[in-house]
Write a structure and sequence with these properties.
- The complex is a heterodimer.
- Chain A contains 22 helices and 6 strands.
- Chain A is mainly alpha-helical.
- Chain A folds into 3 domains: 111 residues, no CATH class; 126 residues, Immunoglobulin-like, CATH 2.60.40.420; 201 residues, Cytochrome c-like domain (Cytochrome Bc1 Complex, Chain D, domain 2).
- In chain A, the strands form 3 sheets. Chain A has a two-stranded antiparallel sheet with strand order 1-2.
- The longest helix of chain A is centred in the C-terminal third of the chain and has 35 residues.
- The termini of chain A are far apart.
- Chain B is mainly α.
- Chain B folds into 2 domains: 229 residues, Cytochrome Bc1 Complex, Chain C (Up-down Bundle); 162 residues, no CATH class.
- Chain B is built from 19 helices and 4 strands.
- In chain B, strand 2 and strand 3 form a beta hairpin.
- In chain B, helix 15 packs antiparallel against helix 18.
- Chain B is globular and about 100 Å long.
- Chain B starts with a helix and ends in an 18-residue tail after the last helix.
- About 3% of the residues of chain B have low confidence.
- Classes of the chains: A mainly alpha, B mainly alpha.
- At the A-B interface, helix 1 of A face helix 5 and helix 12 of B.
Chain lengths: 494, 513
Amino acid sequence: MNDPSRIYRWLLLVASLVTIIYLVSAAVHENYLAQWKTVQREYLTILQQKATDDRGRELLAKFRVEMKQASIPALGTVDRCVTCHNGIDDPRMTDVPQPHRTHPGHILDKHPVDRFGCTVCHHGQGAALTFNEAKAEDVFWDYPLLPPNMTEATCVTCHDAEKLPPDQIPLLVVGMKLYQEKSCGSCHKLGGRGGTLGPALDNEGAKSKHQLIMTNLKPPHTTWSWQNAHFRDPGGVVPGSLMRNPTVTRPETLALTVYMLSQWKRDVPESYLAPDKIEQKYRALHPTPLTGEQVYRQYCTACHGNGAYTRWDKKFNRFIPAIRGVSLVSTASRDYLQANIEQGRPGTQMPAWGPHAGGLLPEEITGVIEYLRSGATAAAPAPALTLHGDAGNGLSLFLRNCAGCHGMNGRGGMAPEIGNPVFQQAAPDEFIIRTIRNGRVGTAMPAFQRPDAPALGDQDIADVLAYLRTLDSHRGQKAIAQNTVTAAPSGGKP
Amino acid sequence: MAETATQEFLHNLHELPHTVKDACFRLGKTPESEREESQATFHNLFLHIHSVRVHLRTLKPTLTFGLGLMATASFVITLITGVLLMVYYKPSTDLAYQSIKDIHFTVSTGRFIRNIHRWSAQLMVLTVLLHMARVFFTASYKKPREFNWLVGLGLLVITLALSFTGYLLPWDQLAYWAITIGSNIANSPRELTDAIGMTKLFDPGGLQKRLLLGANYVGQDALIRFYVLHVFILPLALVTMLGVHFWRIRKDGGLAKPEDPPGGLAEWGGEKRLVFQPLATKTYGLMALVKGKRPPVNRGPENTVMSWPHLFWAELSVFMVTVAGTLVLSFYSDAPLKELANPAIPENPAKAPWYFLGIQELVSYSAFTGGLLIPVIVVVGLALIPFLDRRPGGEGTWFGTSRERSIFWQSLFFAVAVTVGMLAFTVNHGWLRNWFPNIHQLWIIAINPGSLLVLIFAAWSLFTLKRNDSVRLAAVSLFTCFLVGFTLLTYFATVHRGPNWHFYWWPSQWPVH
């Protein structure tokens, strides 16, 4: 009879051989052939070539092939980059290939590796011991290695960008300027100041790629490739985005990207902060007011342009009024403008800009009102209208003449919502009367009482006004609630 | 021969290597006679759980494919590598992830050891499931092995629990969200209690979840609980039950096999051998009080060979094959480690470990039905098999009784058709909530693709019972349906479910997010 266990003995032999082969291979592969050991052996030969003086011979004698790391508990990092970048602080290593080369510039003079590590500036996976995993673009790591030209984004972790030499942070300087020029603050909050149409950008740089929509982006899927592409074509990267194309050149895109990457409220011990950074933090708590014009340029321009013309906005599907236009400024009172700026216009895309909303200081709001009114002569005293209005007749007049644009009950349509409480409270009678009489130049609002052919008499206007005033009380609290609801989508969309 | 004490001492010192060797290896040499081979077996704690002689059938590779042994071997491998990992692992939410990274990057061959741990754990789940299927299809649960079937079922549950608890420990995104899903499955009775409005009075789902996590969310308390379960309680329970499992195999007469005709001729290996006639009135068993079957002392040498060395060669080779397979897998494929756990960035899709994905698919229809009701029905159903199918026959043979094989294939095709059809229908047409948005949740708990599948399978099994007049065949059809359902749902949820649990043909079509 055949030996019943013959097959098993063969199986055992083969399995044992495979086991031994793979155990030995793994041991060799994980230890002797480890990438960093190869690199260090290479570095050792470089050291030998360069050991021409006493200092060189001493460094050679001290060199051991071993894992090296900068462990910095204060920053919560363990950076093993120096295991391969052995020559990073050796000034002789300028002519050798990477990864052995000296760190460029004089940055390490003030930022020694053993105090700062590497990843606090460069990002990447500091714990890794292979280049691919340290670079971390294709591995599971939230913050891959920043490209060299974008590394300046992290300087502001500890420095005030305005106090750094501009030639050290060329892109960041441009990015900061563009952020103000392009009036990004009209829609985005930064440091508590700005609009609410877009997301706040305070921690934009801390985002990982998983927080951004990469669907329409070609690899590599990094946050900076997203930012880059997004600045060139927001709607193409995030479908349905309301963001206006900022119309920037390629270098400007890069600058804005770096500025975004620099937005990271990273918690760093105070001992690491430059004195100017501490001052900057203090200043942020006690801001100096901007002038009216500065405020206008940074926080109003994106929607209102230079304010001289009314324009139809396709994305918002409504008119954006010419707030510096003669017609408005000559009609609207200071209080009316102030209420509209501080509380916003519910039902429109205009957010509230008061200190607790958009973050503008009272002085700045006064300043911006001055600036708005600077372009035109202010309103002359209103002619009195003492007639008593009949709301019933006003309703039928409203339906015939106004509801087409202002909507039933003044709910708003292509024209502003005149039933909303902020308008009702802020707009004095004379403002409404004057607007109905004279219309609003540069908008679709016609003058209803032209000298040549008066469409509405004084009594009619008084009736309409009486009707308009009923809208407020009619709607009451419910109206406010509805307004909040209708206002939400405009602020909520990306 | 008078010796002084000094001489004796020196002599003993000289003999030390031999005496130590003799003390450790009491036989002192390779066994040569069958008597010595018997001694080698029963004088050793680890070997004496085997009988001295083993039936030739047991050695036939295609009878068991060594699946149970492979599961045991994987467990031993996870145990050894697990202890090594324990040396470096720190069960704290602040340190866990970094300690895994350190194991990966700086511990010498740490990456490899972790890969082995991971792969052998996966292999263990797989082989335990296959082992169960083998035992079922060879009818090896029948009397007197009912209890061991139950023990085996317990081992399956512990194996899944071990794997599940280990999933959280790396504290990466994969871990965090898989356990979040898992704990929400534990929370699933709340769907029922919510639907009938009694959650405020009695909330078994929330209780289960809090018991599992030690909190309402996955955090430090959950991590330490899972750690204690993973490295202490569950392995201890598993080792204990494994001991019982092995002991019962021996006590129940080794591997199940068909009865050789007493006094007749049994053919094996081309030879016909006489089977001894047992003497009903007389027992040679030393322990007459022990129930069950004895080593075949009353049968003589029919179709059996010595366990030493044949059985031990077989067992050792299966063990080494498992080790080799695990090593090869670990060499080429790294255990995953995603980004640090971040409650603010949900994984989408957040998927449970693969062996729970079938359940997760059912949970996506109804949390209570899929997460609790159906699993309980399945486990109870599996436990009942040996008590409902009690007619002897077919033991130790694949599809031993007549028509079994054809019933198996019929049920296979039936279950594949039904499951695929149900999934296709659900994907294309949605379910009650899509058609009647305001329907009461109780309707969905009662009627959903999962519960319908269970009902259809049960009906099919009853149909087989009626038509073939055989409990065994009904069990075969039901078990086959269960296997198919489990496999297909697991496959479907693994491959075809993407972000927001939407259907995709292939993961490469998922929107990148």
